[in-house]
Amino acid sequence: MTQSKFVLVCTLLSLGALIAVQVGQNQLIPTIDGKAYYQLEDFSKVKKFDIHIHINTEETFFIEQAQADNFQFLDIIDDRPFGLPMDGQQKIAMLHLKNFSKNMAVATTFPVKDWGSDDWMENTITGLEKSFLDGAIAVKIWKNIGMDLRDGNGKFVMVDDIRLDPILDFLVANNIPLLGHNGEPRDCWLPLDEMTFSQDYYGSHPEYHMYLHPEYPSYQDQIDARDHMLEKHPDLIFMGAHLGSLEWSLDELAKRLDKFSNMYVDLTRLSNLKLHTFNNRKKTRAFFIKYQDRLIYGTDSSINSSTSPSEFKKDINDRWVSEWKFYVTDEKINLENFGELKGLKLPIDVVDKIYSKNAIRLLGLQNW
Fold this sequence. Notes:
With 368 residues, this protein is an alpha/beta fold. 44% of the residues lie in helices and 13% in strands. A hairpin with a 3-residue loop joins strand 10 and strand 11 (339-342).
C-alpha cells in the first residue's frame, strides 16, 4: 500500500470512530452522501420516547416493556365521557409517576362539565395548579370541545372560544405546553365509500360519523377554530395530536408548521404516513427532513387492566419494532389494500429528533 493510500484509510477509519462515539454503540451504515443510518437491530439500543400513551391500570406490564425496549413516554389524561373517568386516570398516572419518574411524564387535563358556572375559570386554574404540583408538565385539550360541549344556548363551544383564553394565557405564562386533539380525521366527514382508512370504525359507530350529522361543526370548522386559537396565542407551545388532524395532506400540514412556529405534531396516524410514502416516497421523506424539528413519535396506545400482560407486551413490542422499521430502513413494507412501499430510511440525526429530542424539548425535560 502506498503512503498516500495508507493515510487515506487511516483518516476514514478515524472519522468512522468519531461518528460511532457521537451516536453511542449503535452500528452505522456508511452511505455515499456521508450520512449515517440506524439499522433495524439498533431498535433496543436507542433511547426513544412515545409521546402519546394512555395508561388505565395500576398494573405495570406496559412500563416493564417500555423499559425493555428503551422507551420513555408521556401518559395523557383525557376528559372523555367513556372508559376510566378523568379523576381515575389522574390517580393512576400520579401513582406510576411516583414509582417510575425516570421513565415517564404526565399530561393532565381539565373538566368542562361545569362550563357555564361563574367559578369554572377559577376552579379550572386551581385544578391545573394542583396537577402541576403533583408532577404534571403538560395539558391536554380533547375533542369534546368542538364536538360535544355546548353553551347555554345550545351552541357548540369551539377551541377558540374567548372563555378559554384565560386558560391558554395561564399556560403561556407558565411555559406549559398544550396538546390538542381537535376534531377528527377528515374521513369522519366523508361518506363511507370515500374514506381512506376509517370505514370499519365509522360503519360500526354511525353516532360518531359526522357525515351523517351535518348539524355538527364541519371538519373545516374544527381546523379553522384550532388555527384561530394559535393565532390568538402565538407564544403557546402546542402539539397537534394525530398529525394535527391534517393527516390527509402533507401540504396542508406544512402550511401550519410554517405559519405557527411553536406548533409540533405527533405521528400517530401512521397509516396515512405510509400512504403518503406509497404515493410519493421522495416528497414524504423530504417533508420529514424539512420538518424534523417539529415531528414527534407516538402511538396513542391504551393500556387497560383487562389486557393480557404477556399478549400486550408482545403486541406493543411488535408495533414499536414495525414502526421503527418504517422510519429507519428502506425495506419493503405492505400497506393493506394499497401495496408495497419502501421505508423512509431517515438519517440518524432526524430519527433521534422525532424519537426523542423533540419530545424532550417540547416538554421541557432537558435533564432527561
